[in-house]
């Protein structure tokens, strides 16, 4: 895929970003390098790889999901809030 001004204009529109004229050549060059790198990855033969392949023996180590028992931490955090009540932050309503 070749990155040119047409593709860059589409990307600007999709991302709702404005790229200054003096930066466009640099951005096109950088995006072209990224696309070239990704296209190189297509050359890898992954047909025989398992989808859950891992380089770690025994899989990814997991920690126990245990709640924190340090109540003073949450109290310190809530003390910095403009408003709080019953261990919750009070924030302005955003839906009317």
Which descriptors would you attach to this protein?
96 residues; two-stranded antiparallel ribbon; 43% helix; mainly alpha
Structure characterization notes:
The chain has a domain at 5-41. The chain has 96 residues and is mostly helical. It has a two-stranded antiparallel ribbon with strand order 1-2. The mean pLDDT is 86. It contains three helices and two strands; from the N terminus they run H-H-H-E-E.
Give me the number of helical elements: 3
Structural class: mainly alpha
Distance between the termini: 46 Å
Query: So what's the oligomer here?
Result: single chain
How much helical structure, as a percent, in the residues?
Answer: 40-55%
Q: How large, in whole angstroms, is the Cα Rg?
A: 25 Å
With strands numbered from the N-terminus, the spatial order across the biggest sheet is 1-2
Q: What is this entry, summarized?
A:
The chain has three helices and two strands. It has helices at 5-15, 21-41, 71-79, and strands spanning 84-85, 88-89.
What is the topology?
Layout: H1 5-15, H2 21-41, H3 71-79, E1 84-85, E2 88-89
Antiparallel strand pairs: 1-2
């Amino acid at each position: 895929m070749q990155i040119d001004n047409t593709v860059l204009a589409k990307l600007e529109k999709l991302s709702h970003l404005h790229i200054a004229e003096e930066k466009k050549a640099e951005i096109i060059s950088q995006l072209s390098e990224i696309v070239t790198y990704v296209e190189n990855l297509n050359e890898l033969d992954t047909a025989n790889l398992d989808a859950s392949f891992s380089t770690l023996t025994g899989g990814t180590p997991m920690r126990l999901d245990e709640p924190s028992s340090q109540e003073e931490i949450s109290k310190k955090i809530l003390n910095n809030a403009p408003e709080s009540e019953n261990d919750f932050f009070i924030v302005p309503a955003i839906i009317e």
